Amino acid sequence: MDYIFKSISNFQLPFTTDGVSVVNMPFGTLESGTRKSDSLPVTIHTYKTDQVPAVFLKNHVLKCKILKLPGLAKVLDVIEPSTDKVYIITERITALNSLDYFNFNENALKLGIYEIALTLNVLHQQGKSLFGALCLGNVYVNSKGEWVLYALELSTSLNDTNHFTSNIQTYNDVVRGYDDWQLGNGSASNIDSIQLANFFNKLLTNRISSSWKPVISQLAKGQPGAIGKLISKMQTDAENPLISIYDNLKEIHIKDSADKVMILSNIQQKITADDASFQNCTPGFLEYLLLPELIQCLQLLAATNQPISSQVPFLGTIFHLTCSDSPIIANEDVFQNQIKPLIFQSFNVADRQVRFLLLLHFPKFMQKLSASEVADKIFPTFIQGLSDTDQVIRLQTLKNVSHLIGKITERQLNNDLLRVLAKTQVDKDIGIRTLTILIITKIAHKLNKSNNRSTILATAFTKSLKDPELKPRLATLYGLEITLDLFDAETIAQRILTVIGPGLLDRNKQVRTTAKKVFQMYWDKLEEESASVVEEDNSTFIHTEEFEKMMNDEEDGKLINGFIQSVKLSTPTPTSTPIILTEETVEVDPWNSAFDDEEFDDSWNVDEPQSRTTKTDTEVKSFGFKVPVSKSWNDDLNEESIESETARKPLTSRRKPLPRQNKPSILGKASAKPSILTRNKSSSPIVTSSKNIKSATNIPSKMSNLVLDDDDTEDGWGDDW
């Protein structure tokens, strides 16, 4: 009655279906979907009660709820929303017959048979049940590439096989028309063994070696223990590494870190030694079973600070499986979710071995990265390789520059990259210098035209044409030939022809021949542009005779004669008239009258007196011309009287006799008696007035009476001054 309650209460199914991957089966339909609670990919099996015998549907639903064994498809939920429909939700599985299993390699097919044999063995020993319906249509593949069994319509207990024996014929009637679901005849006790032999023969038709025939014969006869013997035979098969790898991966989750590293190291060595066994495996085995364990082991080594040398083999194996020229794992989702984060992390590792691995696989994974990812997460660390001290790293980095173009920003291309290429162009290695000019040629069409592209290219080509080695020079001429369409006529005329010109005189014949060919290409383009130039309508034709006249000395003679005549006419007639002051003016200081005023107010608010303009100019005659002369302000001073008085009465000083004693050094500490010239005397302020100026004549007489007292102690300076 539970399903009635769910139907009445408008029960919502806990999953969604894509609606396009519906596969019809003998007992129902199968389609992919997603669980709503956690977006887990699932497979929805839908059964209609009016199309499936009740005995089969009831037994199948019951066994799905009871049997939870490895090797059986994992059942997540059983939903019965109504009386006419039943939903069984399992992990995401795919029917084997819907895959191209004929293209699986032999080892992959044997691994699948081995997994089915293990499931039957577990079902017999732990579940105490038989499967009873082993056929190609009831074998599925889960997301990890494991072969699992589903469809328990005939499954029954080993102690009570009545359900199988009574319904086997009905089952064959229902699946009639479905070749992959037809079952063979046999008793209940050995039916699984017989069906496994038929399954083995169908998958490996004409590929069964003689060593396997005895085991297959025992299975076909239904002998007791035949399934166990098949399992043992496969486990000891040295030619199939997939079986041992699968056994190790099944139990790796219970191993400690050291054992995990050891197991995965052995697997890595097997892949490196021979990867043929890993080609065309069951989808999901490498992608979601092996690869995640290799990546986890690599991260474990990095987290425990293990040497880089122990990490490089794992990284190389991962890149070989996913990023080689013919990748074994070509799944796009695997690259986006597992490999891309690993690439970003590896570019930040400062180790040359890691960087070399990245550069070897760079062209392949660059195609799968977006432009923003390359510009933000790859380019900043990638470009550092061009400045590496190791020549191999620089060369490999330079080879991969062309793969970046189109996915980096315009600034990174026109600024950052060109700046580094300018350094590699003068590298000490010939190969790097040659490759640099080839890279510049390859990215030339991507450079920004408004960023002086032609100038940049011309400069780069000029520098490489001067290289002392042959290869860079030839590479430059090759670049000029490729980039012909990037230069306009003006640039060709002004820069490019001068770049190619030195190559015509090169000491190598091949360079000269190539330079001549390239020069002719540019010359032809220049002539084509020249033919289309629009001429000026008012242009005049100038004869060469006119240039000869301009160089004639007769023209210069006429100019000289004319110049001499003009000099004679402009020369003035000299006279003997002396310089005579025709007019004298007295300079008046406007400040004197202001200071002589009795009501003079010595405050900051005094208005500045207005200056009176007087005529201070005089005129003199010189060679018959009148020349204005401005007198100086101090012409009124009687300099002659001052000089005469001073000359008559020289300044003298009277010295006191000094006692005879040793003169102390100038560095001594004896205190010197201050001289009269160094004493502080109060002096009255000098008043600038006309009266004071007139009294200046008495200064020499007063100075002559000064007596300078000699200092009593010797200070090291002479007294004669």
From TrEMBL:
Q: Where is the composition biased (Acidic residues)?
A: 708-721
PROSITE patterns in alphabetical order? HEAT_REPEAT
Question: HEAT repeat positions in this chain?
Answer: 378-416
- List the GO terms this entry assigns under cellular component, sorted alphabetically: cytoplasm
GO BP terms: tRNA export from nucleus
Q: Which residue intervals make up region (Disordered)?
A: 597-618, 639-721
Comp. bias regions, Polar residues: 677-704
The UniProt entry, under InterPro entries, shows: ARM-like (IPR011989), ARM-type_fold (IPR016024), CIK-Related_Protein (IPR051177), HEAT_type_2 (IPR021133), Kinase-like_dom_sf (IPR011009)
- From which domain of life does this come? Eukaryota
What this protein is called in its record is: KLLA0F23694p
Give the organism the record lists.
Answer: Kluyveromyces lactis (strain ATCC 8585 / CBS 2359 / DSM 70799 / NBRC 1267 / NRRL Y-1140 / WM37) (Yeast)
